[in-house]
Request: fold
Amino acid sequence: MDKVRILDHPLLHHKLSFLRDKDSAPAVFRANAEAATVLLASEVTRLLPTETVAVETPLATAQCQRVREEDVTIVPILRAGLGMVQGFLDLMPGARVGHVGLARNEETHEPEAYYFKMPPGFGRGLTIVVDPMLATGGSACDAIATLKRHGAARIVFVCLIASEQGIARLTAEHPDVDVFVGECDAVLNDRAYIVPGVGDAGDRIFGTEN
Reply:
């Protein structure tokens, strides 16, 4: 479990409270999901190496540290993961974005792949997989396995809320992957939703709830 980081930050807990609130409108849900992602992203990006560059200030030359943003690829698991992309791009506008499409089979509760598109040479740097919820862990594990088959060497998974079961499965199947979590809930219900969770994050982000 040393690869799992469950963040403890007052503002992160504050933002996640609005995601959990069933009365939060889609606009409120989206805004707080993005803000919570920024807080997570500030921790994830501690993993990035820096390089020294000479910068001319108005007074002298300064030796500064920069990261190679173009070596970072943000990979949302469609569709809910799209709600976390901008939070990372707010900090690293030069990062690239790929997409993995996985749909949940409501009978088996397992993911089914339907889309995969990455920028050229994406595997040379850090690949950050994002999905608001880590429930059974099926989608995350399948997405990561697919990325590895396509050459991703270093992968990080980031979610807003996870279940204990999802974390256990992800770390068992992919022990080399760093996992960053906003908050962790203990229970999945009979539909494999996290309890108390937030409900269906994709529906709440895009306002497609019935």
Observations:
- The longest helix spans residues 26-44.
- The mean pLDDT is 93.
